[in-house]
Amino acid sequence: MKLITVNIDILRPYPNNPRYNDDAADAVEESIDQVGYITPIVVDENYEILAGHTRWLALNNMGEEEVEVILVEGLTEEQKRKFRLLDNKTAEIADWDLEKLQNELDGLDFGDFGFWDKELDKMADSFLAEHDTDSEERIVICPKCGKVIVGFVDEDMLED
Question: What is the pTM of this model?
C-alpha cells in the first residue's frame, strides 16, 4: 500500500459500481472546500477505483488535475469486489451517539451543508419515543448557531 500523487485523468471508475454517486458529489465538494482533501481515493494497480468514487467525481467537478491516492497492489478480483462493497456497507451500519453529536455540533457553522438532517430526525423520533409530549414540544436547530433545542417552541419562532 502506497500513497502517491497521480494525474486525475488516469483514474478509472469501476464500471459496475452499484452506488449512485452523482447526488452526493456536491456535498463532498462542500466538505473538501470546508476542510480540504483528506481521505485519498483507493485504487488498484490498474488505477481502477476501489473506494472513493464520489471523491473522484467531486474532485473532477472542482477541476483538480492531480490527487493523492492510496495504491493497493496484489488483491484478487474477489477481494477487490468485496472491498468495494464492504467499504460502503460498513459505514452505513454505524450509528450516531446523539448526545455526543449534539455536543460536537455546538458552535460549528456548516453553511448550507445540510449533513445533519437525518440525525436531527432521529433525535426527534428518539425524544418523542422517550417522552410523553404534546404537539407543541419539538426539537429545533437554530439556523444561526446550529444549537439543537428541545422543548416547547412557539409557532412564531419557527417562521422565517
Answer: 0.70
